[in-house]
Amino acid sequence: MRAWAVLGVAALVAAAAGVWLLLPDARSLPEGGAYAPDLARGAAIYAEACASCHGADLEGQADWRSPGPDGRLPAPPHDRTGHTWHHPDRVLLDITLRGASAVIGGGYESDMPGFAETHSEAEIRDVLAWIKSQWPDRERQIQAEITAEDEAAR
Questions:
Q1: In the chain, pLDDT over 70 holds for what percent of residues?
Q2: What are phi and psi of 153, to 5 degrees?
Q3: In a domain? residue 30
Q4: Residue-range definition of the domain harbouring residue 131
Q5: Cα 32 to chain centroid, rounded
Q6: Which residue stretches belong to region Disordered (predicted)?
Q7: Which of 138, 140, 118 is nearest to 129 (CA)?
Q8: What is the pTM of this model?
Q9: How far apart are CA 63 and CA 76, in angstroms?
Q10: How far is it, in rounded angstroms, from Cα 106 to Cα 91?
Q11: What is the tally of structural domains in the chain?
Q12: In a domain, 23, yes or no
């Protein structure tokens, strides 16, 4: 019986270590393990760094699906009318940290910069959490399912 208990504890420790290694943000989680977003900080950073392009009310720029004269797409909305909620958290974080051109690649040009040099990953997670908090329940649920599927596939 004692051998089974030891094996059980060892399995739990191994599983926890595996999760810690697989999650991109696991090493930056606060003490206690669970990420608790700071929505007020996220809203403030969004207002300072994002609203000038994506709109104070997450509305994006006009004609965001049509390239402008420079061939680049305007900033999309982050509300339910846009496509932000169609992407898993990992992709949203990557685009915000590294910029759209770096993530999409293949010569794609975008005005969306990366913010890794000016904001921490935790700050960006707070911004994304605040954006998601503005969505209706349906879009939040769909995006959570997309994120869960993405995490399960990794």
A1: 79
A2: -80, -15
A3: no
A4: 37-153
A5: 21
A6: 61-85
A7: 140
A8: 0.77
A9: 9
A10: 17
A11: 1
A12: no
* 89, amino acid identity: D
Sign of the torsion formed by the C-alpha atoms of 77, 82, 85 and 86: negative
Q: What is the pLDDT of residues 107-154, one digit of tens each?
A: 999 999 999 999 999 999 999 999 999 999 999 999 999 999 999 999
Q: Which residues contact 25 (CB under 8 A, 6 or more apart)?
A: 35, 93, 121, 125
Q: Which two tokens mark 35?
A: 């990420």
Residue 114 in tokens: 């990366």
Please indicate, yes or no, if residue 67 is contained in any of the structural domains. yes
- The pLDDT of 30-55, averaged and rounded, is 89
* CA atoms 28, 126, 62, 53: torsion sign: negative
Residue 116 sits in a domain whose CATH number is: 1.10.760.10
CA-angle at 145, arms to 79 and 110, nearest 5°: 45
What one-letter code names the amino acid at 153?
Answer: A
Statement: residue 1 has pLDDT above 70? no
Determine the length of the chain. Answer: 154
- Domain assignment of residue 8, yes or no: no
What pLDDT score does 47 carry? 98
Q: Hunting for tokens 């995490």 — which residue is that? A: 151
Segment 76-120, tens digit of pLDDT: 999 999 999 999 999 999 999 999 999 999 999 999 999 999 999
Closest CA to 77 of 60, 89, 65, 93: 60
